Amino acid sequence: MMNYKINHIPIGKIRPGTKITPEFITIHSTANEKSTALNERNWLTNPSNDRIASWHIVVDEKEAIEAIPLNEIAYHAGDKKGNNTSIGIEICESGDRAKTIQNAVELVAKMLYERGWGVDKLKRHYDWSGKICPRIMSNNNWEGWRGFVISAERELNKLKAGEKSNVNHEPSSWAKKEWEWAKDKGLLDGNRPKDSITREELAIVLHRLKEGK
Ligand SMILES: [Zn+2]
User: Fold this and answer.
1) Are 76 and 39 contained in the same domain?
2) C-alpha count within 13 angstroms, C-beta hemisphere, residue 182
3) Domain carrying residue 119
């Protein structure tokens, strides 16, 4: 996973600080083949920039930069609902395109995973306002976009599978003998050796022990 930097712009016209509860992630591309994530971030606070346009995260071939907290409004969707309900991610058109897209896929998958969302939560700028954006995915009637969503879903599934495989089904070597004993005696059910026990579960175990069953 690439670096994720938080570099918020100050409160002002393009970051009013209005709180939102995001329900979607909106994908854009910068429409600038030369600018990096840092260039994009710096443009937001450039005194000669008088456009009312902003976004939450920008990603390039080497890093992601968060310019606006994800629970605050940014102006990226060209649509009131889009701005009020979604996190805007700009994908840079500069540098190594494949690497940049891979970074965006991983970033988006992680964000979906953390929120318990599926890829149905992914929107294009186009979905809100009809703008041909992210333009780098608009080829062949949005073939690139469909590929992006498929990649994000694959990455999301990997994260979900990792969660399952991380559950250790074997007790530690130092506890193996006693674990087997407790299982044989029927004191414990023999599942999830690494999980913690609650007080009520302990009471059941103590009771089973006292009753000899
Ligand atoms: Zn856009």
Assistant:
1) yes
2) 16
3) 3-166
Separation of CA 83 and ligand 1 centre (Å): 11
What is the chain's pLDDT, residue by residue, as a tens digit (213 residues)? 689 999 999 999 999 999 999 999 999 999 999 999 999 999 999 999 999 999 999 999 999 999 999 999 999 999 999 999 999 999 999 999 999 999 999 999 999 999 999 999 999 999 999 999 999 999 999 999 999 999 999 999 999 998 766 666 788 889 999 999 998 888 888 888 888 889 999 999 999 999 876
Same domain, 199 and 119: no
Q: Report CA(75)–ligand 1 centroid distance (Å).
A: 10
Last residue of a domain, one of 147, 166, 185: 166
Report how far residue 190's alpha carbon sits from residue 10's, in angstroms, rounded to the nearest whole number.
54
The verdict on 77 and 178 lying in the same domain is no
